[in-house]
Prior knowledge:
The structure holds two protein chains of two kinds. By secondary structure, chain A is an all-alpha fold. Chain A has two domains: 26-74; 84-97 and 156-365, MetI-like fold (Orthogonal Bundle). In chain A, 67% of the residues lie in helices and 0% in strands. Chain A has helices spanning 24-32, 37-63, 83-94, 102-120, 127-147, 163-189, 194-209, 212-221, 223-226, 235-261, 264-272, 277-292, 294-307, 319-327, 336-365. The two termini of chain A are 54 Å apart. Chain B has eleven helices and eight strands. By secondary structure, chain B is of the alpha+beta class. In chain B, 63% of the residues lie in helices and 7% in strands. The longest helix of chain B has 34 residues, at 20-53. In chain B, helix 4 crosses helix 7 and helix 7 packs across helix 9. In chain B, strand 2 and strand 3 (173-176) form a beta hairpin. Chain B folds into three domains: 17-53; 83-177 and 246-391, MetI-like (MetI-like fold, Orthogonal Bundle); 181-245. The interface between A and B is large, with 56 and 57 residues. Chain B: It comes from Salinicola rhizosphaerae. Chain B: Belongs to the binding-protein-dependent transport system permease family. HisMQ subfamily.
Amino acid sequence: MTTNNATFRTEMIEAREAPNQSRGVIGWLRANLFSGPVNSVISVLVILAVAKIAWLALGWAVFDANFLGSSREACTGDGACWVFIASRFESIIYGFYPEAARWRVDIVFALLAILIAWLAIPRLPQKKWVALFALVGFPILSWILLLGGVFGLEHVPTRAWGGLMLTLTIAVVGIVGSLPIGIILALGRRSKMPFVKGICVLFIEFWRGVPLITVLFMASVMLPLFVPGNIEFDKLLRALVGIMLFWSAYMAEVIRSGLQAISKGQNEAGQALGLTYWQRMGLIILPQALKLVIPGIVNTFISLFKDTSLVLIIGLLDMLAIIRAGLTDTNWLGFSTEGYVFAALIYWVFCFSMSRYSQYIERRLNTGHKR
Amino acid sequence: MLRPSTSLPRRGHGPLWRNPAVRALFVQIVLFVALAGFIGFLVHNTLLNLDARGIHTGFGFMDQRAGFSISQTLIEYTNSSTYGRTFVIGLLNTLLVSILGIIAATIIGFVVGIARLSPNWLLARLATVYVEIFRNIPLLVQILFWYFAVLRALPSPRQSLSLFDAFFVNVRGLVMPDPQPLDGFAATPWALLVAIIATVLFAVFAKRRQMATGKALPVYWIGLAIIIGLPLIVFFATGAPLEWSMPELTGFNFRGGINILPELVALWLALSIYTGAFIAEIVRSGILSVPHGQTEAARSLSVPGAITLRKIVIPQAMRVIVPQMTSQYLNLIKNSSLATAIGYPDLVAVFAGTTLNQTGQAIEIIAMTMAVYLVISLTVSFLMNLYNARTLLKER
């Protein structure tokens, strides 16, 4: 038999390229920006608006701005005058910390950066010990370094602390303090003992129901009433107590959601092996639950970090308060925009990197059960 | 108790501390005693301290004359009003900015959230940038920015920016026409109420009819016509009893009209923009949570696009959106207490600020302030739980 070559093809035809219109830059533009009349109008409007805003913002912040100088006289351009920030930069970072002792703050900053990097980068080893040091050793070491008064270090009272250093101190203490309290509260809320559960529910719902400002007010006016009259209560310490109590309630709810996600069999298996309650929680339930809610915990950290700015209302000189105080300086009136934009930028960099990290962790942990 | 011990054969034989029920009871008693002791210690200290400072506890101060003025009062208030009155004034101001903020944040949130899902790449990116910028800057910085950097840079009253010669924006805030109701105006709000009730009844009737006959009535349009039309008819039938007090520049300031404080505007802007960014994320995740199969199924049944959205996608998305949205609303109400940083006279600024400083009754005042927020939070959570129970996925 012979094959009729006129009707059959014996070889495959090469796939033809997609039409010009749906390929490359043009194709992408057609698909994403100009897929119809409405979309095209929206795209053009958005392009125009973004271009206009970007032009104004860049002009203000870069092209027409002044960067160099030491006094108000240097502000000659129409745009921003970053000289204001530059002239206050030291106090924005260190507050009123004595200049001769600032190397101590630098050491703490450096240690903090190393610890965070170590814990955040998954490849580095010995996570457990580093975490233990970060939660126990580092706070004690920083406390000694920052406060001084021992080992021949000059004593620096907390009222001289300020700027970014104070912001970070409050944030780190808040985070380190609220996590363990939150774990205890979350376990307590799931306890089968009615009194323990009731106390934890009351505690959590109370702090979650009131604004942080009122908590800080309470800490600053009511805490001194609670302790025996002869004990002097440091202002920073009062704020820290308030912040820790407040955020531990939020932390507890995040951790509780993780505990709920662990199946009952895990606990029952532990019981069958004769493990005690704390062994079951510490070795089986919590490691799984905490890992599940790392993104939620990081989100709580972000909120906590943003809310450290509220301490300015009770008179602590955190970074925002220092900037605000600088704006009332008669030599520098009228530079609010520069001041607040700079503050916003610093906070944004911290918060945005934390939120990116939490998304990254979420993706990493999500590998097994992706839908 | 820790574990029901129904099948422990050696019960009563082992040592007492091995019995879980006994242990649980013991732990709770110890905790109770420790807690009671701690609270007793605090109360004891507080009483001693209050005594040493000569402060008398009690709510007697509420009837004393306050003697300070407040820049925004929704109800009548003078220097000779009582401290109790300052509480009400502050509470109303808090509620005012919260309600305004909730409305604006919801609108911003829905617009931005839907824009993030837009097929238009640029629009989606723009919405993402909005969310990422405003979510990650502390609210306090934003409030201070709007107040000190933007509103303080506005012109003086004489150089006000004006719109239709009726709205004026200047450094002292926004001035706009003030409606003055005359005799007979009361009929209009009543008409509105009647119209709302009529619409609800009509909607119920239309639904029953559709269930029985399968024919749908244009409920939306008829309802809108009733709600807008009836009050309008009544309003003009009673002779349009409303007068506008127009703002006029006399000397250095405006006379007539309503003056909206710049503090209120700054706080409102910051609250709505900040919370709007969070709500946008909630709306987006809510819409994404509806499986695509639902839309495809609707399309294969040739349900029109608008009805697919209204009757299929949105009701399911709402189940995810509403609980999270409520907690954002609660956050907004609590965050409105940041007003105290720019001097907007809200509950915290007026009552927990000025009144506390004048009277020194720290415990009573802080407790009352916290109680207000707690009551709001708990009420809303309670309503939320009811809603959740109603809209829970009915699995059969």
